Amino acid sequence: MSNDLPKVLRPSNVTGCLDDAEDRVNLRDVLDLDPRVGQEIRGLRKARDTTIAELGKATGLSKGYLSQIERGISSPSVKALHSISRALGVTISWFFPPETDDHEELRDIVVRAHARRTLSFESGITDELLSPNLDKTIELLRCTFPAGSESGAEPYNHRGEEAGIVISGRLDLWVDEQHMQLQEGDSFAFSSERPHRYANLTDRDTVVIWAISPPTYWHLG
User: Fold this and answer.
1) Cis upstream peptide for 195 (omega within 30°)
2) CA 177, CA 53: separation in Å to the nearest integer?
3) What pLDDT, on the 0 to 100 scale, is given for residue 215?
């Protein structure tokens, strides 16, 4: 079946995620599903502002089955998990972050550097999720903009607020009709409802720590 959900739109990119030829996850992990997978699916679905009915239409799975998966009553099959991940714009490995030596209760508090979940986009931009999940009211990202990359020629807007700080390089930021050049150490904050776009117009990478509230996997409408 076709994926009827709009493309994912991250704060750093409007062209969509790369469709990995192979999902980098061990099949053994998929068959021994963590009950948190349902929570991860629900958090990602809500962050995408998608209903269970819409996800069901995009995946061909029933609303009842999806609801049971999200509540931890049922475990998705490998085929179902592939369908859900592709519909929500991530690879299946999104639901299986690397293991750490932390106690279980720390998983919802701490993200170790080697265990960050990552989205790579067609433009070359990479987003690393620094917050443990998308169930809270804020999302924290480490965004890497390669030389010449941009969010798109046209500005866009969505619900919420965002703020960030340039860790290295330079970021060109447009909010409404205002154009700003942000250097290393400069920070910003604005309502996401204002039309905005970004670009790295230099010849080296730019790294930005980005906060978005509420967590938002916005998409082209």
Assistant:
1) no
2) 38
3) 81
